[in-house]
Amino acid sequence: MDYTTKQMLGLVEEDTLGIATEQRDDGIRVITMDTPPVNALTVQGWFDLAAALDEAGRDPASRVVVLRAEGKGFNAGVDIKEMQHTAGFDALIGANKGCFAAFKAVYECAVPVIAAVHGYCLGGGVGLVGNADIVVASDDAYFGVPEVKQGALGAATHMARLVPQHLMRTLYFTARTIKAADLVQHGSVYDVVPRDQLDAAALALAADIADKDPRVIRAAKEALNGIDPIDVNKSYRFEQGFTMELNLAGVSDELRDEFAGTEKSGRQRENK
């Protein structure tokens, strides 16, 4: 990110990798994910993101949140290599709890959350975006839930907020992706802009919200969540139960080993 963009976002201090937060004077809080090489968050990363969102909601100076990312894509989900290099199920349980906390923090943030998506948005990234209030994307953005290829289930709850039911099932069973431009027709992506205009587009929407009385906006966020026909937290937790079953059966480690080039499933069989 060049210095001009940093100034526009209010991020003029030295960058730090991980989850960075900046509260701007105009009431916009910018939360940036920056975890090279692909923004696949570790267990701690998911909890750090949840904490940043929770803090944004508690801070009366925050009127709206822009959730964005540095690097090649918005978010690639969980760090599978961390999971495969950790003995037992500790990393899996941590990732499940961390994702649940982060998705919940987006949804329950007391102020609107705008997701500014570029490049790939996969797995856990869809969980974040599906729970956001507004989505803007660059013209290179695409979305998908490749969980079935890694022996996991999850984020169908959130993909179902982006596309109709039958399309969601098609994308889920096939692990195919869908372009941001195709989501505009479903009303889930508000606008698609060139990559170099994404931050400006997200900030323009955020400024329009920040200009409103924050007491009304916070009440509106709570009211809209209250009339939501789906309990997204409970629905996602239900999905996670099947992930645990697949892990206990050994299926998940076998598929994750193929993806990560590890041998965890073999080591666990030897230890039995």
How would you describe this protein?
Helices cover 50% and strands 15% of the residues. The chain is an alpha/beta fold. It has a single domain (3-196, 214-271), classed as Alpha-Beta Complex (2-enoyl-CoA Hydratase, Chain A, domain 1), CATH 3.90.226.10. The strands form two sheets. It has a six-stranded mixed beta sheet, sandwiched between helices. A three-stranded mixed beta sheet has the order 5-7-8. A hairpin with a 4-residue loop joins β1 and β2 (28-34). α4 (90-108) packs parallel to α5 and α4 packs antiparallel against α11. The N and C termini lie far apart (49 Å). The model is unreliable at 1-16 (pLDDT under 50).
